[in-house]
Every structure is written in C-alpha cells, then in structure tokens.
Design goal:
By secondary structure, the chain is of the alpha/beta class. The chain has 13 helices and nine strands. About 45% of the residues are buried.
C-alpha cells in the first residue's frame, strides 16, 4: 500500500480516529511486518543527566548540585554493562543530556578527571566497553555534529535523536522549548540529515501532547519521511506520549486524549515508508497494548531487565512474559531484536566494517536466547 501523500496526510491530521483509520494502518503493518512484533532487550546507561536545555516536560535533566544530578563513573559503566549481559540484554542504550560541557565548568572538570576531553569521547569509550562484552551500543547523545557522528560510527551500529516536533511555535516564549536551544527544529533536522549522509542507521520520533497541534504532528512525520526518502536511514520512528509528572514545569498539563494519541500512531504508520518500524513505549501505555497493536505499531522499543527508564522513572518496564501474553491474545508473536535492523546489516555500506562481526555475533546470540526461552 502506498503511503499517504502530503496533502492526504495533512487532510487527515484532525480527522476522527475511527475504525477505518486503524484498520488501514493495521493492514499496512501486517503487509510489511506480519504478525510479529518486537522489542529490544537493553541496559540503559545514562552517562550523565546534566543538560544545558530546560524543556518544560523533562524530568531527566539536572544542573550540577541539584538533587539527583549524576554522572556515571567508569566503574559504574562496567558494572552495569556486565549486569546487562548477564540478564540477557543485547542493546546498550547510552543516553544523556545535551552538551553539558558547554554550560557547566564542574562537569568539564569531571570529564577531565575521567580522562576525557568531551562527552562524545566518553560515549565512544562506553561504546567500546559495551562491544567488548558482546553488547551493541545505541547512543542517543543529544544534538551532535557531523564530525561527532562520524566519531561514533565505528562503535555504534545505530544512533538516535528524537525530532520531537518541527514547530518553531513550540520554541516561543511560554512554550515548552523556549529555554532549550538544542530543540530548534532546524538543528535537529540537520543532525538527521548528517546521519543520513554518513549512512548511519537512525532512530527518531515525535512527542504527542506537549502543546503541538495535530497538523504539527503530521508535519513532523512528513519531515522525517522526506529525510528517509533522501537517505534511507530511518529504521524506526517512536510515537511517544507526554505524561504529566509532579516534578516538571508542565505538571498541570493534560496529556493528549487516548484517541488523539492513537490517531497519531496510525497516521505515523500510514505516512512513513512501510519498511520504517513504528514504535510506541509500552511502559507509558501499560493498558493500551491491544489499542496500540490495533493502531498499527510493530515494535515496543527497548525494555530493560536491569535498569529503570531514567527518562520516565515513574513508569516501570513491563515484564516481557506478560507483554508476550498480551500480544498473543491479539494474535501477535513478541520477539526480541537487535538495536540495528537486519536490512542494514545485509546491505553493504551501512555498518562499519569493524562492527560487522560483533553485530552478526550479537544477533546470533540473541536468536539463540530467544529459542532457549521459547523451549523452556
């Protein structure tokens, strides 16, 4: 089935989330992905939660000296990687705040004490430590330059950055991105383009419910599609719903109504190219497994047997067995996957030559664990 045209997508931006829309999205998913839905078993490494941005919906970022501020030690990185491997993780998700060294002298001093001149150097080191244990790094290290992406390519089979939204309006005074210089849409789109030019498999996504309009959501999905059509590097797109929490500036904001969120999921499936995976986080939607499958997702993203979701710590990961049973009830089989999708491994030029061996061994190891788990 051909994806919606730009005009068709924009016309559907505010259309009712009816059964016909969901059925169409589910049909596209079934034609492209079958009745197999996936997740990535991971260990979450928040190297630092220091960040120079102040997004009104974020409960992750801290400033130095603030309660909960944290930069991982080298020993903690090794310890968590070991635990992740022991518990069956394959992905090492390296996630952190945007460019803290440009804002905080104490953090620059901390980096120097660890032996690094930049955060990207720390990310590269942690990535190599992950590879040494048979884990596959996937770094979501904030806004990076082309040179920094190239620095990470030899140790990261895939990387990520949430686009969130292309609306400049959300950057105006009183809006959630006003105090977040790295959330300017042009800067984030430039990083996605650089990753495409480098042939680096990429994960991106949109946020639903931070003050954007339905049309702005569709415009964001169309922007992601244009980049993928130009470079072919988008392996998955996350449709993530905002959830209010007491500790954030938007604590009193209402999350998007369920039909509106599910409409965004279905439109993502209908707008994006069929080979691009559509993902929604299960820990933010613990009672919506059936609805998300009905709306057209084929992936639940990373689930950690070791670490909490440091971005949304109030929302624990689902137990994989319980999620599998919920999927089976709807006629789907839940299976683990690697943080890089098979088509990029099988096509020359997408994976650094030095990574092909570790990537293939990791995929084989994960497949073996899945078979063992199924027969247990």
């Amino acid at each position: 089935m051909t994806p919606l045209s730009d005009d068709e997508a924009l016309a559907l931006a505010e259309a009712p989330a009816d059964d016909a829309l969901f059925a169409r999205a589910a049909r596209v998913r079934d034609e492209s992905w079958g009745r197999r839905v996936t997740y990535s078993p991971k260990v979450f490494l928040p190297l630092t939660n220091l960040c120079r941005n102040h997004c009104d919906y974020c409960s992750f970022r801290r400033s130095p000296g603030e309660a909960g501020a944290w930069t991982m030690s080298l020993e903690e990185v090794d310890e968590w990687l070991d635990r992740g491997r022991e518990q069956g993780a394959l992905e090492a998700l390296i996630c952190l705040g945007d460019r803290p060294e440009t804002a905080f002298r104490s953090y620059r001093e901390k980096l120097a004490s660890l032996g690094f001149s930049s955060t990207v150097d720390y990310v590269a080191w942690a990535s190599e430590r992950a590879l040494a244990r048979g884990l596959l790094p996937h770094s979501n290290a904030g806004l990076l330059t082309r040179e920094e992406l190239a620095r990470l390519r030899p140790s990261n089979p895939s990387v990520g950055l949430m686009l969130e939204n292309v609306s400049e309006r959300l950057c105006e005074k009183g809006m959630p991105h006003h105090r977040a210089p790295d959330k300017r849409p042009a800067r984030r789109l430039a990083m996605l383009q650089a990753a495409g030019e480098l042939r680096l498999p990429f994960t991106s996504g949109i946020l639903v419910g931070i003050g954007e309009t339905p049309r702005e959501r569709v415009e964001s999905l169309l922007a992601l599609r244009r980049l993928h059509r130009a470079y072919g590097h988008l392996q998955e797109v996350i449709v993530q719903n905002f959830t209010p929490r007491p500790e954030i500036a938007m604590s009193e904001a209402a999350e998007a109504p369920e039909p509106e969120f599910l409409r965004s999921v279905a439109l993502a499936r209908l707008i994006l190219e069929p080979e691009v995976s559509v993902q929604a986080p299960p820990n933010l939607n613990p009672t919506r497994t059936r609805a998300l499958l009905r709306a057209g997702i084929n992936d639940f993203g990373g689930i950690s047997p070791v670490t909490p979701d440091y971005i949304s710590p109030r929302h624990p990961w689902p137990h994989v067995d319980a999620l599998a049973r919920a999927c089976e009830k709807e006629g789907f089989h839940l299976a683990p996957r690697a943080p890089i999708y098979p088509r990029y491994v099988e096509t020359p030029g997408w994976v650094d030559e030095g990574l092909l061996g570790p990537v293939r061994r990791g995929i084989e190891w994960l497949a073996g664990r899945a078979v063992s788990r199924a027969s247990a």
